[in-house]
Design brief:
The chain is an alpha+beta fold. Helix content is 19%, strand content 38%. Strands 3, 4, 5, 7, 8 and 14 form a six-stranded antiparallel β-sheet that branches. The chain has a five-stranded antiparallel β-sheet with strand order 17-16-18-19-23, with no helix packed on it. Strands 2-11-12-13 form a four-stranded mixed β-sheet, with no helix packed on it. Strand 11 and strand 12 form a beta hairpin.
Length: 374
């Protein structure tokens, strides 16, 4: 559990950027600098107002601010914007200061967190292979790249997460909880025409989107927004949800009756905000590792008889797939997420299943889109 220290945000927000440094940190000033920027994140339908944030450099030479003074609700793990300031190459962070307001709770939060610098440094140094970059056919890197963004996420209950983002990959490196605090409402808005309650209601209604992050539009927009608000008031804020997303399972993908181009799942997004790619069948070492529950995955299906490839994107229903993983993987059992294609008189029948060695559950609420590749 992250160590959280009480503090006062304002003029002291950047205090941690001027902290002293050890001899090792001084060495890092010359040897461990990378080209990276900071970004902010919050889950769909649970908007927050980011008051202030700072990522302190490990060597004590300063820090990089997290984009602030704005509403954030672009999706958990998805960076919204970035600060392109200062030198391109700079030290990596070892501490985070954050202050925000959670609209759905009508609550302020703040905290200071120690970040796992050694892990962050190792991930930046090691880098990783990127299928997308490999396709650019550059002469020098052969698809090798590293992370370029540090994303700070905030959610109800004071949840705070930090991810490293690069081409084809997002990796969580920290999760903790900020503390509840009281602050002046004018920090969020100086509007005098609406009461605090009226303003919060307006923001919540305006921020509602579909599960896929699409804006609610059309003639029934107000009705759908009102229904969403009533559901939130009835069911309450799902505290602990974002921490539960971090549960790992021993699972791997399986394709039955269908050929996937290069065996590549080119994009897989997890509910915990991470993203990656996978080559199937998985190599033994990768098959032995655990992964969070997937939210979305994309690949290119190669139909039989020489037909051109088709891009397929699957979106899993959160309630259905999370319940299936909990039930079938409750005792750390190996699982397979099967994408099954069966040819019939009407063409092809596509279904998705989660299975262990004894039980198989069809994920009937999974939606998918198919696009022809030009």
């Amino acid at each position: 559990m992250a160590k959280i220290m009480r503090w006062a945000i304002g003029s002291t927000l950047l205090f941690l950027t001027t902290a002293g440094c050890t001899l090792g940190a001084k060495m890092d000033r010359f040897t461990n600098k990378f080209d990276w920027q900071a970004s902010e994140s919050a889950p769909f339908n649970y908007a927050s107002y980011l008051i202030g944030g700072s990522l302190a450099y490990h060597d004590g030479s300063g820090g990089l601010s997290v984009p602030d003074h704005r509403r954030v609700d672009g999706g958990w793990g998805r960076g919204v914007s970035g600060h392109v300031v200062g030198p391109d190459r700079k030290p990596l962070p070892n501490r985070l200061a954050i202050s925000f307001f959670s609209y759905t709770e009508n609550q302020f939060y703040q905290g200071i967190f120690e970040l796992p610098y050694d892990k962050i440094l190792r991930l930046f140094k090691e880098g990783y292979y990127s299928p997308s970059k490999a396709n650019w056919k550059t002469e020098s890197d052969n698809g090798r790249t590293t992370y370029s963004t540090v994303i700070v996420g905030v959610a109800p209950g004071g949840a705070v997460a930090v991810w490293l983002r690069g081409i084809d990959k997002t990796t969580e490196v920290f999760f903790g909880h900020a503390e509840k605090v009281e602050k002046d409402w004018e920090i969020v808005t100086r509007s005098t025409s609406l009461t605090r309650e009226q303003y919060i209601r307006m923001v919540i209604l305006d921020s509602f989107v579909t599960p896929d992050g699409e804006m609610i539009e059309g003639p029934q927009k107000e009705q759908k927004q009102q229904e969403a608000l009533e559901a939130l008031l009835k069911n309450g804020v799902p505290f602990g949800l974002w921490e539960s997303y971090r549960t790992q399972y021993h699972w791997q993908p399986l394709f039955t009756g269908m050929l996937v181009e290069d065996g590549l799942i080119e994009d897989i997004t997890y509910f915990n905000g991470e993203s990656d790619y996978l080559y199937t069948p998985l190599a033994p070492a990768l098959a032995a590792t655990t992964r969070p529950v997937p939210k979305e995955l994309s690949y290119i299906w190669m139909p039989p008889n020489g037909a051109r490839g088709r891009s397929m994107t699957l979106n899993f229903n959160e309630g259905e797939i999370v319940a299936a993983f909990k039930k079938l993987g409750s005792h750390n059992q190996p699982l397979q997420l099967e994408m099954r294609m069966v040819k019939n008189d009407a063409g092809h029948d596509f279904t998705v299943w989660l299975r262990n060695d004894k039980v198989a559950v069809e994920l009937k609420l999974t939606t998918f889109k198919i696009y022809n590749i030009n």
